[in-house]
Amino acid sequence: MNVTIIGAGNMGRGIGTRAVAGGHSVVFVDANPEVAEKAAADVKASARNGAKVSTASLADAQFGDVVVFAVWYGANIKLAKQFGTKLVGKVVVDIANPLNSTYDGLATAPDSSSAEDLAKAIASGAKVVKAFNTTYAGTLLTGQVAGQPLDVFIAGDDADAKSKVAELVNDGGMRAIDAGPLLRARQLEHLQFLHITLQGTLGTNWGSAVKILG
Predict the structure, then answer these.
(1) Is the pLDDT assigned to residue 120 strictly greater than 90?
(2) Mutual angle of helices 33-43 and 10-21, in 10-degree steps
(3) In the chain, where are the structural domains located?
């Protein structure tokens, strides 16, 4: 698959690393072209099976099969409105955790989530999937913690869209877990909020993972 990652920060680079390691080509798009070029250079060494890594500007980007919004909550809504019908038919992955300005709660309404807010703002025909919000950027570079592959929880209302994201996850050496419809993004975002608040208690320095064992 061809994957477009909008936002070439730490999370964008982490997701890009796993995508190219699984043989999928990645285009990085960022408001700062130098940041996109740096991300592309960082992940090229992980590319396997002919995967290509390139960059594009926000104005000229041609979106791939999967478009990852590797940006903060709020910025994802603005991007959806900016790109409009360019996203029709695309699988759009929302990774945002909608922390409030004081980082002691979530900014979304109790009956919504970042992913659901994005789905309301995005062009009809785009397929929103929640994924990667419970994985930290550093852990994505290797795709595992303590020798265990990362679990990536996926929520969405379109089975084919979730299947594409699951393929990216599994090909990258991680484990995709179908968490159900898009409304399950509410629980996933609350789960990661707890995970974030526990970093000080655990002392794991953003190197922990949420893992289902059984």
Answers:
(1) yes
(2) 40
(3) 2-202
Tokens at 57, concatenated = 């500007």
CA distance 122 to 112: 15
User: Are 188 and 35 in contact, with CB atoms under 8 Å apart?
Assistant: no
What's the CATH fold of domain 2-202? Answer: Rossmann fold (3.40.50)
CA–CA separation, 177 and 80 (whole Å): 26
Res. 61: pLDDT tops 90: no
The CA radius of gyration of the chain, in Å to the nearest whole number, is 16
Other residues' Cβ atoms within 10 Å of the Cβ of residue 125:
10
Model-level pTM greater than 0.90? yes
Structure tokens at 183: 């409304």
Please give the torsion angle defined by the CA atoms of residues 149, 151, 156 and 159, in that order, rounded to the nearest 10 degrees.
40
Question: Looking at residues 110-119, what average pLDDT do you find?
Answer: 97
Across 58-205, where does the E strand assignment appear? Answer: 66-69, 91-94, 127-130, 144-145, 148-149, 151-156, 175-180
| 8 A C-beta contact, residue 3 and residue 65 | yes
